Amino acid sequence: QVRLMESGGGLVQPGGSLRLSCQASGRIIRINTMGWYRQAPGKQRELVATITSEGITNYGDSVKGRFTVSRDNAKNMGYLQMNNLKPEDAALYLCNADIWSRTESSEDVQGRYWGQGTQVTVSS
């Protein structure tokens, strides 16, 4: 069973930085695009950043120039470096990935997976 687990959230002052991590586990064959999304109370889920297996990145307009997405393919890890955080960045940050994995019956399947999220609070 494939799982994604985020870590690194917390409370930070405006202007501060955080680094989020996303660990994929399970019988993984390959991870295609990994992404970060966020959801604040009363708001729709918002794209933060994505990164392909080749390292091509894409960012939401509100985080361009402040956030950097990266990944370590050997470790099945994804990262989100967040700098110059603003109060409006506060949200539950969720990791998402398109993953090929092998089932217990040795079938290769592709699926899109979500983690449970890590909370980011930006406040003085």
Describe what you observe in this structure.
By secondary structure, this protein is mostly beta strands. It has strands at 3-7, 10-12, 18-25, 28-39, 46-51, 57-59, 67-72, 77-82, 91-102, 108-114, 118-122. The strands form 2 sheets. Strands 2, 4, 5, 6, 9, 10 and 11 form a 7-stranded mixed β-sheet that branches. The protein has a 4-stranded antiparallel β-sheet with strand order 1-3-8-7, with no helix packed on it. Helix content is 0%, strand content 59%.
Kindly list the characteristics that best describe this protein.
single chain; 124 residues; mainly beta; 7-stranded mixed sheet; 4-stranded antiparallel sheet; 11 strands; 59% strand
Which structural class should the secondary elements be placed in? mainly beta
Q: Distance N terminus to C terminus?
A: 40 Å
- Written as H for each helix and E for each strand, in order along the chain, the element string is EEEEEEEEEEE
- The geometry reads as elongated
Radius of gyration: 15 Å
